[in-house]
Amino acid sequence: MKYSYVSHLECPKCYEVYPKGEVHHLCSCGSPLLVRYDLKALSEAMSPKDLMERELTLWRYHELLPVEDPGSVVSLGEGMTPLVPMTKLGKEMGLFHLYMKDEGMVPSGSFKARGAAVGVSKAKELGVKEIAMPTNGNAGAAWSLYAARAGIKATIVMPVDAPEITRKECIVAGADLHLIDGLISDAGQVVAKAVAEHGIYDASTLKEPYRIEGKKTMGLELVEQMNWSMPNVILYPTGGGVGLIGIYKALLELREMGWIEGNLPRLVAVQSTGCAPIVQAWQDKSRSSEFFENAYTQAFGINVPKAIGDFLVLDAIYETNGCAVAIDDATMLKELETIGRTEGAFVCPEGAAAFAAARELKQKGWIGEEETVVILNTGQGIKYPETVKVDVEVLRKGESLSRV
Amino acid sequence: MKYSYVSHLECPKCYEVYPKGEVHHLCSCGSPLLVRYDLKALSEAMSPKDLMERELTLWRYHELLPVEDPGSVVSLGEGMTPLVPMTKLGKEMGLFHLYMKDEGMVPSGSFKARGAAVGVSKAKELGVKEIAMPTNGNAGAAWSLYAARAGIKATIVMPVDAPEITRKECIVAGADLHLIDGLISDAGQVVAKAVAEHGIYDASTLKEPYRIEGKKTMGLELVEQMNWSMPNVILYPTGGGVGLIGIYKALLELREMGWIEGNLPRLVAVQSTGCAPIVQAWQDKSRSSEFFENAYTQAFGINVPKAIGDFLVLDAIYETNGCAVAIDDATMLKELETIGRTEGAFVCPEGAAAFAAARELKQKGWIGEEETVVILNTGQGIKYPETVKVDVEVLRKGESLSRV
């Protein structure tokens, strides 16, 4: 049995086909490429129970990943994050089956580790020696760390406003880090120029086709954790949108293989009111988004004014009868605190936005109380210390606690 | 079959026995109490293969944990952290079988989540409504979060110098946080007074007997991950020492049950030269430690000048032919950077100290190149941003990267 059932790359816009085993970035038509697998052969060769004794990382799904030689795998033990019942919070929201898939519990503390693990492994397999990418922080941190492990040089450009801890992660991994006084779109222009001038491997979101395959594993794990069933609704904080695209792709592949059946979950893209290009496009019933001017939100990971994969995100929403919701920063931060006090989870602001969106959609009747709802918390709250204000007294030695 | 095979509590110093199912703290002789199980009955009722289909958390070992009613379990999905091969770093050190068990990948990003999960669950089972504890930061953060999930009020006292992010975790969980201008020992006095005056449940290290049971699961997981075999050496960053005591207890219990056999790994307690009471005691061949004056280290988690369980740590070292090693802060931080650049892992300074100790013990010939060595990285590097200095240029929009 083969380690990977990857067959080729395909353009989801013009259906041009590209061979596997070579470096490819965007299609000649400008669209991102998607990785295709021989799902028919795989579904004949394998069944879900074959996974049971596999390692507890995302590599347990290696047949559905693009890396062909197990020796290329660069792993820090990522994947199989917990699906945590949020019973008390759900009850408070009027949702009786609310779960959080906690993506904080991976190396580097954000779901970006999944894309980095698979993307860097495939780059290593393709013989890449140097990568460059723009980032809102967490992706750059994850790619720097996995690149270090693979022995690949990484050049990272991130906004000065990106979470400060992610700079440290890049530096500790020995990456060539640059800050820019601008947005991720400005960082993207710097990287594009460097890539064109110096022939570096472009690891920008969706400009390399493998990151999405790593993120796809969130969907694979979720249905395996639910014993090969699906929730009714999945809410995902959406910046570049690769997580949502990946989950959707995973569900389509599993359904084609016959491992799951029936309607897919309604997919919800959650954005900030300060940066809501997908929400605007969805409200306009458009198939693509417009550049969102003057973007700003404390949920920095979703501060993406125009995503290259916007049409794929919108497809996923339309095809699953999903929707797109924008949450303002104050509501998001209030939700973050409620989650901490109620469930003991310190989520990232992006994750908190998705919880606030679930609350809002329940209030509007878009989600029913008996529906099973899964929220992806895309990273650890500890990466965003500024979301929590601390104002406490300092005792001197020998002092006592005053009791209220 | 019972959910837990807990039988009673026992004093490891005077062998006094206390019944399970009641609140107990220290023995009347002043020693911490240990939880005992009916290992004979358990070994007859169960074998390792019964674990195979269990959930991927530390609760998979519930028979060897003190919580008797599954309804008491307070979980955020903690446990089953990866055992990561550190091949490149090991080769550089001359160690051909070097592994890191990465305790950063649990809720709150440090191994303290294990003790908190089991300790809070048992407190809930015992009907506790309010807990108090001193902490060097990470334990307070973890206990605050699990207490919030359990609906238990938490009062936390930590040094002002403790990692700042841990304050935020306490606050987001709604804990009653106090800072103190002193060490954890000073915080301990404040808590002791509050406990005596207000009848709060004392959750201080080893003053409640269940935290150690949570930490024990690191040892259970490790041998399960090694297919019920043991490494030759385990290195553990040692402050209060509960992690090391817990791993030792786990190995003894598994051996008594016949699930593992042979010599136990040599256990190595790793401290900082700035706070090395266990190392001093070991060098003096003593069975207990002296208060370490003027303690200071950047590895704040091991800044414990006198541990209540010191004699248990020293026992574990002596009984396994282990040793104790002190690492200075500069060496530790250099090792932290080497680990990042070589293996792509951003470890905490305490974890880095343990790697530096492995390097030193290999150089001295105390560890042989063919021995299997496991290092516990007790938390994520991102909780200690000050360990990495960032000094990079800020580009303006439209600027290009200069290539060296």
UniProtKB/TrEMBL annotation, chains A, B:
Pfam families: PALP. Residues 74-379 form the Tryptophan synthase beta chain-like PALP domain. Its EC number is 4.2.3.1. Keywords: Lyase, Pyridoxal phosphate. It comes from the Bacteria. Its cofactor is pyridoxal 5'-phosphate. CDD domains: Thr-synth_1. GO terms for molecular function: threonine synthase activity. This is Threonine synthase. It comes from Alkalicoccobacillus gibsonii.
